[in-house]
Amino acid sequence: MTRATIEAYYAAFNAGDAQAMLDCVTDDIEHRVNEGAIRLGKDKFAEFCSHMGVSYRETLKDMVIFVNEDASRGAAEFVVHGEYLQTDPGLPEAKGQTYILPAGAFFDLRDGKISRVTTFYNLNDWVAQVSA
User: Fold this and answer.
1) Residues forming a β-bridge with 59
2) What is the pLDDT of residues 25-42, one digit of tens each?
3) Which of 64, 75, 84, 108 is a plausible cystine mate for 94, CB 3.0–4.6 Å?
């Protein structure tokens, strides 16, 4: 079930289906992003998904998913292929730049849903790509 939940979460991400992503997470989801604040709760996660859908168009490729023995935790490694659509405050100006960025995430799961997702990527690499 853990692998299937993570697969469904990322399939929804690649389809741009924020509601399907929200269906994969608990009401008290803990969302930790690289270089950012911790978001607690489904409402905050929904706000993040909405913002991402406006500012970026991303597809995750070369996905590898790992699951621990008791299926309470998982991890994924992938490559983000993206386009920067709208300027994000504090970041370089968006002009439709494209980028390719290795990334990964760690998960806690409870009752078949994601209760924590922690995402990692190299922000300096991304900034360099969109600033070139």
Assistant:
1) 81
2) 999 999 998 877 899 999
3) 84
* Residue-range definition of the domain harbouring residue 123: 2-131
Per-residue pLDDT for 130 more than 90? yes
**Residue 108 zone, left/alpha/beta (φ > 0; ψ -120 to 50; rest):** beta
Q: What is the mean pLDDT of the chain?
A: 94
Q: Please state, as a whole number, how many other Cβ atoms lie within 10 Å of the Cβ of residue 58.
A: 18
Residue 94, CA atoms < 13 Å, CB-side half-sphere: 14
CATH number at residue 15: 3.10.450.50
- 48-85 pLDDT tens trace: 888 787 889 999 999 999 999 999 999 999 999 999 99
